Amino acid sequence: MNLFVVNSGSSSIKYQLFKMPVESPICSGLVERIGLENSIITHKIFTGGEEKVVRETKTLANHEEGLHEVARLLTDAEIGVIKDPSEIDAVGHRVVHGGEAFKATTFITGDVKDKIQALFKLAPLHNPANYLGIQVAEKIFTQAKQVAVFDTAFHQQMPPVAYRYAIPKKYCTDERIRAYGFHGTSHKYVSEQAAQYLGKEDAKIITIHLGNGSSMTAVDGGRSVDTTMGFGPLSGLVMGTRSGDIDGSVIFHMIDQLGYSPAQVSNLLNKQSGMLGLTGYSDMRDILKAIEAGDEEAALAYDMYAYRIKKYIGAYAAVLNGLDAIVFTAGIGENDVTMRELVCRNMQYLGIKLDSEKNKVRNGNLREINESGAPVKILVVPTNEELEIVKQCYALLQSENVSV
Prior knowledge:
It is globular and about 60 Å long. It has helices at residues 63-74, 110-118, 127-140, 160-163, 169-173, 184-198, 248-256, 262-271, 274-279, 284-292, 296-320, 330-335, 337-344, 356-359, 385-399; strands spanning 2-8, 13-19, 25-32, 39-47, 50-58, 90-95, 106-107, 145-150, 204-210, 214-220, 223-227, 325-329, 367-368, 377-380. Helices cover 37% and strands 21% of the residues. The chain is an alpha/beta fold. The termini are close together. It has an eight-stranded mixed beta sheet, with helices on both faces. A six-stranded mixed beta sheet has the order 11-10-9-12-14-13, with helices on both faces.
């Protein structure tokens, strides 16, 4: 069964093709700078244990042109892995916001698309791009089932005590103002990998997804019971360009006393804050270079980043009433040795004891970096959102006995 995964961003398309039930892709790629001159396509083919990379630069005016180029590469006479787009049985789409309407992966119908559109206002940077990916895929892969996998779905299991805000009930019931959470596809995948490694289905796990956007989730027996992102992806941890948690009074002060418009405040907190606002850099690698050069503000920002994570570890250990493991994942979580060390420092009271030598190992696999015999496992689990998406699509197709 050929299942194609599409992760459509505002100016990019990430994709992978799987021949399920084999969970290793036969090709993957990234289309960047869509809508700009010199768009870049990086296409990888995996055959016979080897990887072949094709890179092309051309002008792509929109996502439809970009996905047509992907289809061309998939069916190329020399490097193609299929002969015709009709060989794709299903296309799995990452959709960031599913609201309360979607608690699980679902086939895409006209009604589903209408609901995704209705959620544009809750995820204006993401859902329109995800929706566009669906529209384009329907035109190119006309024989395929289209499937939506929602980032928010995993967190729909949270109890009201976690997702309700302390404002009048009507805002939750009528306006759907509540915590939804994000990165759910990643949190679900790595928590399941960790539970399998632990050999414990009822494991109490804190997953720590650290990238340009960052979030944490308390997972109890495979269920998300609390998460740091809320109504939108701004709250919680310090991020690349987002502030994370901030006193709402600051927003009112900026509007009432400093003369900012709501749009200016939103832009400030979402695009000019976080590590960028603190240091001038949003990439953690640049911040580490600045620290090495003696930049005290960069060092403070780095400490603040770790401090916020530690606060949530403590909070979520309380929510879970115990802790079996913490899991680091995503770009920073998987690769920043120093950040993991800083987060785990002085956490012995919770049973978190990092082994500094194990922490330095880089191998791209799930690995344990805690001291031997420590009560709490510290795991590095590489995330794979595309694999999680294809697994959910395949499970849906199997459960519905869909003939493809």
